[in-house]
Amino acid sequence: MPGQSKILLSVIIPARNEAASLGECLYSLAGQTDEGFALGRDWELICVDDGSTDATAKIAKGVPRVELLTAPVPAKGWTGKNAVLWFAVAQAQGAFILFTDADTVHEPGSLRRALHERERHEAAMLSYSPRQIVAGFWQRALMPLIFSELAVAYPPGKASDPASAVAAANGQFLLVEREAYFSAGGHSAVAGEVLEDVALARRFKRAGRVVRFRYAPEQVAARMYRSFGAMVEGWTKNLALLFPLPLLLALMRGLDAALIVGLPLLLWALPHLALVLWWQKLALVLLWLHVLRRYFMRVAKSNFSALDCVLSVTGVPLFCALLVRSWLHHTLRRRVSWKGREYKTNSSKASIDPR
Questions:
Q1: Topology of domain 7-130+170-226, per CATH?
Q2: How many angstroms from the chain centroid is the CA of residue 10?
């Protein structure tokens, strides 16, 4: 295991062109210090600049007590993020390591609370799904759909159950025990994985390590995308890996939308179709109410606001289109793009990520 643990915790943030988000993230972390948990004495904050062409490095240098590293060019077969994290871990000194993204904002005291939670559950890996911050119509319409599907397909309870084969983790907040991390091979063992967080969670579970995963709005928030284009690129990269049957899922959700919109139109058209018997109308109304109830019970699992869940009906066509687009990129093109880099994919090795 490289290096010796000299402090309790190392917090590592990979950053590639994150000038819009990084400052808020770093200050939310650097402010979490007191007499019993002092930054620089008990824990360290490491930011790794991954070839940024914006003000990322300048922002990191401007935050007191942040250690800024410059990542080397990723070796062949490595994704940029995996290479950055493996490079940083080799220089980290903490007995525990928290990997977190530049688009996150951490609540006061969240680091100590996470360490205590990990200890209570004797978890070798503790991962949080953050409260998602969305802006603009399309984010508010699309994101509840995706996160509700994730909650249904990969329940946190099963991900945290050692007896379950379900593995889930979120790289936006991923706390690991140093010894367990290196025993599992760390990011070197998942070097080419686009969804490295769940790949690591699977390795931990297979090794018999305790993994704890939950939704934690009181601990951390994240704003994943700052433009429509970035959102399309990000979900194109991820959706076909998140869901093993993306085309079937697109068909099912498309049918939901067709029924939600189409049944009221059919009711309106009944007199023109000579279908005016009362029981025919009642049957259609009851079917429509059943479809609505099933849809909103499902999307409510996203943990988004009620208004966003209502808006999500309008986001179904975009969700279906992105599922198909992601499938095409992974299955036919076998390449995805992210932050100016292209990665080869292997759809037969799809993994699951709750992000």
A1: Spore Coat Polysaccharide Biosynthesis Protein SpsA; Chain A (3.90.550)
A2: 21
